[in-house]
Design goal:
Strand content: under 5%
Pfam families: Snf7
Organism: Aspergillus avenaceus
CATH architecture: Up-down Bundle
Number of strands: 0
CATH class: Mainly Alpha
InterPro entries: Snf7_fam
Number of domains: 1
Distance between the termini: 39 Å
Order of helices and strands: HHHHHHHH
Biased composition (Acidic residues): 198-207
Helix content: over 70%
Region (Disordered): 187-207
Number of helices: 8
Shape: elongated
CATH topology: Ferritin
Length: 228
């Protein structure tokens, strides 16, 4: 019955609004899950940095390797925080879209007509680029086009899912700030490492270092999974 009505009279506005809200709620839940996972990763990474600092204090002979290890995890923490900031921004943007879409449907109900919104189209175009939301945001854009809220978006207007270069760059000053924040200068007592200087690791610490490397690889895998 609904299909026949849609053929002769066009899509039902209430049905369209429900569909749009369902998609936006689904996207919000996905972002909340991803943000939660990043919080767990951040907590674990902070602990790895603290462990490296404690190892350096207990055994001065391992200070150099511990410093390198702590900086490696600090770089991962910078990436995690950038990703979390991006997701929080996207969540706020998605909520803004939901408010604008519901307002557009309300105006349509009162005035009997709908004016296309370039603001909503711009926000949807931004959100559809996110790997986390790409599929459902494309569904949402289709529904919004059918409802007459935005113009049809062509694939050429939507760039490939890729992070900006400045998001990929690992600024050393950010890494140093992270180490200062977590360790309060405790690790700074260790000698800085020259790029071509080989690390001298104590045999006792080899197994522990391998465990940390495995943890780092697992952490990177989880972070990449949130991006793809």
């Amino acid at each position: 019955m609904e299909t026949l009505k849609a053929v002769f009279f066009g899509p039902d506005p209430q049905t369209q609004m429900r569909k749009c809200n369902q998609l936006m709620r689904a996207n919000t839940r996905q972002l909340d899950r991803d943000i939660g996972q990043l919080k767990i990763l951040e907590s674990k990474t902070r602990q790895y940095i603290l462990n490296a600092s404690k190892r350096a204090q207990r055994n001065p002979s391992q200070a150099k390797s511990a410093t390198t290890e702590a900086k490696t995890f600090a770089r991962e923490l910078v990436r995690i925080r950038r990703q979390a900031t991006r997701l929080h921004t996207s969540r706020a943007q998605l909520q803004s879209v939901q408010m604008q879409v519901n307002e557009a449907f309300s105006v349509r109900k009162i005035q009997g007509s709908l004016k296309k919104s370039t603001g909503i189209m711009k926000d949807v175009n931004t959100l559809v680029r996110l790997p986390e939301l790409n599929a459902t945001m494309r569904q949402l854009s289709t529904e919004l086009v059918r409802a007459g809220i935005i113009e049809e978006m062509v694939d050429d207007a939507i760039p490939n899912n890729e992070l900006l270069e400045d998001e990929e760059e690992e600024a050393e000053e950010e890494v140093d700030k992270v180490l200062q924040e977590i360790l309060q200068g405790k690790l700074a007592q260790a000698e800085p490492i020259k790029p071509d200087e080989p690390l001298e690791e104590a045999p006792v610490a080899e197994e522990q270092f391998e465990d940390q490397e495995a943890a780092l690889e697992q952490m990177r895998g989880r972070l990449e999974a949130l991006k793809s």
